[in-house]
Design the sequence.
């Protein structure tokens, strides 16, 4: 492991990579600050830039964009009560009232220090556990992978918001279906191409990511009209109040651990972690400083935690890590247990660069927040055309095909309708990314077993994984049963 | 939008997908395989139809509130015109025109923003992509 960490240090401390992680953090912060645009959109908008980079540098920059966007989301949450990211909604519960009370600088400083602590704790935990888990995961075979993929998809139902289980499943199924378009990976026969050669290679990942997030977000903002939100200025005095550091220290400790553990679970992620942390913390103290520190430390630790299944198993646990998986595959990096031996520079480089990224977030963004937050005041008539233009040009530069742009507009229109009807879109992206992997592993598994499905419950590991899938599937039913017996 | 329109649309998508899945050609040697090119698509289509039917019976609560469809329609028209213009005018001139039109359509009236932002963005894009990164992009049939 120490050799790997040394390799990671060499990769992460390369001046070019340090510059990329700093650029990623700043870009992520800027995009994450914009109300309505979250980390998935931030990563999607940066994909075309990453294509021209060295794979390790591209991945390091994208990781910076991810936690930069989560950090940036807290600024709009606190200053204008319009979270750019779902994971910073809980921050606004105590942050916005504090800002309205004339303590915007204190609220932003609390969020910044808490994000830093959560991020650094998460990076340490990742450093300790990722290597161990990756070594263990090398024993995984196709049946295990098939079941892990089914488990990751099933978790969408388990962690869906109340009343959204069916809609999350529909979104995931639509993603899986989009992933089947193109030549069949085994036999090469065309599927769902309707005679169009443009579709033979399948639908590009960047197209789906941009259409369902960047473009659909822009369309959604267009239909909402101008919403005037009372704005609070950041001021130049971004610092903690006396006694804050002592008050929030235990909060940071327990919620960083909680956030990391929640982040590791497939399907959970930073949003769930931040809500858990806020609810959990309010049981200990009514102090609003702790109410800001808890969700902020938890969501950043969860971001780091979500890299555990992504880097070690190649399985994304959330919509954002699904986009990162797509970016990794596009950059020629195959995540999973073999990444540790095949590309230790990328594996350890990303993990070690997280320390640098979190330091950049604190050192660069804290003094810049009063200036960066002016971005929030960019009017929608100016912002939206640029978001649309960047997403269209991003896709065109990747595929150089006009048809893809028409397809993108059609997909964005569909995504907008789904959004209006309350369908979450992250499962759609997760389904799209996992579609090819699931089909490939399932078919390989059945080849190995001469077509016998029994191979999926043959070994202790597969039995455990199949049991976990069954538990997740029956979760909503058990919840409903408990509710109805509680009502009686 | 009514409570059942979206589930019914999902049901229709599932129907079309299942119909297309049944028409996926199979090699003679893969017909007898337990999982072939049709299996998973058929499973996905059937599951989607089940969920779509369930949601159609129950209805989906649709978010209400005033929606402005005018700007959305105008932006969609700008996007379609941009895509249609690329083969003729090339990417960067089309981008500048798209930004100009989109900004104007959404109500921006300040001349420095209306002219400077589209031209600056297109010039920066051209410089970054074609000059710095050396990516060749067809200039469009009007200039070629």
Sequence:
């Amino acid at each position: 492991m120490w050799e790997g960490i040394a390799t990671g240090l060499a990769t992460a401390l390369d001046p070019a990579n340090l510059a990329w992680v700093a650029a990623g953090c700043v870009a992520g912060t800027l995009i994450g600050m914009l109300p309505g645009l979250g980390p998935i959109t931030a990563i999607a908008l940066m994909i075309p830039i990453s294509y021209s980079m060295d794979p390790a540098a591209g991945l390091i920059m994208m990781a910076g964009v991810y936690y930069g966007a989560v950090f940036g989301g807290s600024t709009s949450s606190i200053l204008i009560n319009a979270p750019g990211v779902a994971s910073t909604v809980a921050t606004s519960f105590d942050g916005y009232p504090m800002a309205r009370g004339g303590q915007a600088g204190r609220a932003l400083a609390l969020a910044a220090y808490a994000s830093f602590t959560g991020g650094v704790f998460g990076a340490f935990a990742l450093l300790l556990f990722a290597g161990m888990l990756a070594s263990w995961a090398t024993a995984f075979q196709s049946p295990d992978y098939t079941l892990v993929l089914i488990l990751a998809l099933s978790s969408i139902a388990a962690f869906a918001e109340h009343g959204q289980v069916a809609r999350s499943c529909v979104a995931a199924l639509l993603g899986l279906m989009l992933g089947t378009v193109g030549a069949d990976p085994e036999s090469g026969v065309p599927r769902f191409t309707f005679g169009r050669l443009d579709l033979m290679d399948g639908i590009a990942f960047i197209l789906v990511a941009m259409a369902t997030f960047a473009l659909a977000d822009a369309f959604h903002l267009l239909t909402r009209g101008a919403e005037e939100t009372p704005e609070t200025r950041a001021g130049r005095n971004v610092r903690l109040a006396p006694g804050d550091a002592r008050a929030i220290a235990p909060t940071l400790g327990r919620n960083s651990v909680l956030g990391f553990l929640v982040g590791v679970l497939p399907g959970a992620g930073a949003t769930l972690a931040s809500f858990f942390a806020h609810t959990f913390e309010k049981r200990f103290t009514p102090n609003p400083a702790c109410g800001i520190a808890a969700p902020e430390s938890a969501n950043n630790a969860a971001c780091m935690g979500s890299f555990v299944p992504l880097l070690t198993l190649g399985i994304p646990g959330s919509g954002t890590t699904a986009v990162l998986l797509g970016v990794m595959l596009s950059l020629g990096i195959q995540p999973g247990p073999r990444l540790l031996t095949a590309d230790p520079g990328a594996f350890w480089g990303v993990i070690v660069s997280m320390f640098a990224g979190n330091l950049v977030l604190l050192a660069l963004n804290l003094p810049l927040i009063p200036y960066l937050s002016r971005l929030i005041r960019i009017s929608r008539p100016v912002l939206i055309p640029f978001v649309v233009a960047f997403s269209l040009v991003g896709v065109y530069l990747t595929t150089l095909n006009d048809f893809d742009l028409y397809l993108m507009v059609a997909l964005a229109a569909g995504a907008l309708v789904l959004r209006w009807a309350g369908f979450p879109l992250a499962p759609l992206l997760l389904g799209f990314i996992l579609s090819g992997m699931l089909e490939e592993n399932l078919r390989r598994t059945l080849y190995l077993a001469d077509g016998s499905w029994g191979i999926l419950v043959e070994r202790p590991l597969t039995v455990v994984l199949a049991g976990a899938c069954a538990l997740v599937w029956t979760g909503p039913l058990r919840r409903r049963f408990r509710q109805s017996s509680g009502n009686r | 939008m009514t409570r059942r329109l979206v589930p019914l649309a999902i049901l229709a998508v599932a129907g079309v997908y299942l119909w297309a899945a049944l028409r996926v050609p199979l090699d003679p040697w893969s017909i007898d395989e337990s999982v072939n090119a049709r299996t998973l698509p058929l499973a996905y289509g059937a599951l989607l139809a089940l969920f779509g039917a369930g949601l159609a019976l129950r209805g989906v609560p649709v978010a209400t509130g005033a929606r402005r469809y005018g700007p959305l329609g105008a932006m969609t028209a700008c996007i379609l015109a941009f895509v249609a213009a690329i083969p003729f005018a090339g990417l960067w001139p089309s981008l500048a025109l798209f930004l100009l039109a989109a900004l104007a359509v959404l109500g921006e009236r300040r001349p420095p923003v209306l002219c400077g932002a589209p031209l600056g963005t297109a010039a920066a894009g051209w410089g970054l992509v074609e000059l710095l990164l050396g990516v060749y992009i067809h200039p469009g049939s009007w200039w070629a």
User: Anything to note?
Assistant: The CA atoms of residues 21 and 39 of chain B lie 9 Å apart. Chain B has a mean pLDDT of 90. DSSP finds five helices and no strands in chain B.
